[in-house]
Amino acid sequence: MIWLDIIDPKYVLFFKELIPLLPGEILITTRSSPNYQETRALLDLYGLPYVCFGGRGESLEEKYHERLKRSQWFLTLFKDQRPDLLVVGASVEAVQSAFALQIPIAYFLDTPSLGLDPKEPNLASLAPTKLAKLSAPLADVIFAPFVVPKSAYQQAGAHNVLTYPFIDPVLWINTEESPPDFRQVCGLKTTRPTILVREEEQAHYVRVRSNLIYESVRALNALDVNIALITRYNPAPLQQAFQGLENVYVLEQKFSALSLYAHSDVMVGGGGTMNLESCYFGLPTISTRSLWLYHDCYLLQHGLMAHASTSLEVLDFVQKILALYGKNAHANRLSIQAQRRKKARAFFIKGKPNFDFFFEAMGNMGSIGAVFGGL
C-alpha cells in the first residue's frame, strides 16, 4: 500500500497527476477545519477518495495539538497494516509518524528555506524553515524543483536530495484545454475585464502579515472591472472586509485553475502556487507577497512576474496591462498571453516534465523497488 498525506492544496494538484501512475493500493489522508477546507474541497473537485482526520488549528498550541492528534490517529490507522511507502509534501506529522513506524518516506519539498529579497538581502532568510528542520532529516529521499539549490536542503539536515527539471504547475496546467467560464457561473459581467486576486497564505514560513491585498482591492474597485477574490481560508472575513464594494466578488465555489486563468485579464497574487500557475499560463501577474521564496526570485529574475509593495503599484500595473489590451481587448489578450506563455515555458521546463525521476528513484530504494518493479 502506498500512503499519501495531502494537507496542502498545491499537493492535491501535484499528486493528482502522480496517483494514476502508482501501483497497487493507494490510501490518501487529509485534514480539514471549519476555517480551512480548500484541500478537502479540491480533493472532492477532482474525485480523489480520501480519509479525513484532524484539522489545522489557529494558535501555536492548537496547531501542535492537532499534529499530536493526527500522529496518534496514524498509529491506530496502521495498527494492522503498515504502508510500504509514504509519498508526502509538507506534512510534519506524516513524516514523523512514518519515520517512527519505519515506513520509507519519499518527500516532495519546495520550501526548505526562504529566498533572498533582492531589495533588502538578509542572509537570515536562508536559514531552514521550522517545517524543514522537523521533517527533512527523516526522509529517505527528497525531491526538489531545479530552482531550489540542494544546499538549502542540506542545511535543513537532508541527506538524499534529487532534483527534477521542471516547475510544478507544468504538470497540471494544460494550456490547450478550453475550460468553462467561471464568470458565467458566478454571474459576473463578461463584457468587462476581470482581475483575479489571491489572498496571502498563512503558511508556516510567513512571518509578517500584510494588508496589501486589502488595500489593493479597494484601489482596484474604482476601475470598471470584475474583482474576483480567491479565498484560501474562511471566506467570511473577506466578505465582511469588502462589503459594499460593488465590483468585488468573493469566490466560495472551487474552480479549476484553467477555468480561472483562461477567463481573466490580470492576476494580483498573494499566493505562491497560484502566481506560478498564472505566470506559466501567460496571465500578467503582480505579486503582493510579503516574503520571497526561491520561486518568486526566479520569476522576477526572468521577467515573468512583477512585484508590488504598495496598492498604487498594483493599480498602476493593472491599468497598464488593461491599456495594453486596448479596444480589441479579447483578441489582444489572447495574443499577449500566448506570447507570455511561450516565454514562460522555456523557463519552467528544463527537461522531461513527467515522473520518470520519481519511479527511477523508487526502483533504487531497496525493498520499495519490489513494489515498483513492474513499472
Q: How is this structure best described in words?
A:
This protein has helices spanning 9-18, 38-45, 60-77, 92-100, 130-135, 150-155, 182-186, 212-220, 236-241, 257-261, 272-281, 294-301, 311-325, 329-348, 356-363, 368-371, and strands at residues 2-5, 26-30, 51-52, 85-88, 105-108, 141-145, 161-164, 194-198, 226-230, 248-251, 266-269, 285-287, 306-307. Strands 3-2-1-4-5-6-7 form a seven-stranded parallel β-sheet, with helices on both faces. The protein has two domains: 2-166 and 351-371, Rossmann fold; 182-348, Rossmann fold (3-Layer(aba) Sandwich). The protein is globular and about 65 Å long. Strand 11 (266-269), helix 11 and strand 12 form a beta-alpha-beta unit. The protein has 375 residues and is of the alpha/beta class. This is DUF354 domain-containing protein.
Keywords:
375 residues; six-stranded parallel β-sheet; DUF354; Rossmann fold; seven-stranded parallel β-sheet; 16 helices; DUF354 domain-containing protein
What class do helices, strands and sheet pairing give?
alpha/beta
Helical content stands at: 25-40%
As a whole number of angstroms, the C-alpha radius of gyration is: 21 Å
What proportion strand? 5-15%
CATH topology of the largest domain: Rossmann fold
CATH class of the largest domain: Alpha Beta
CATH-level-4 superfamily name of the largest domain? Glycogen Phosphorylase B
The overall strand count is: 13
Q: State the distance separating the first and last CA atoms.
A: 15 Å
Q: Assembly type of the shown chains? A: single chain
Largest sheet: 7 strands, parallel
Uncertain runs are none
Number of domains: 2
* Helix run count: 16
- SSE arrangement, N to C: EHEHEHEHEHEHEHEHEHEHEHEHEHHHH
CATH architecture of the largest domain: 3-Layer(aba) Sandwich
Neighbour order of strands in the largest sheet = 3-2-1-4-5-6-7
Mean pLDDT: 90
Give the overall shape.
globular
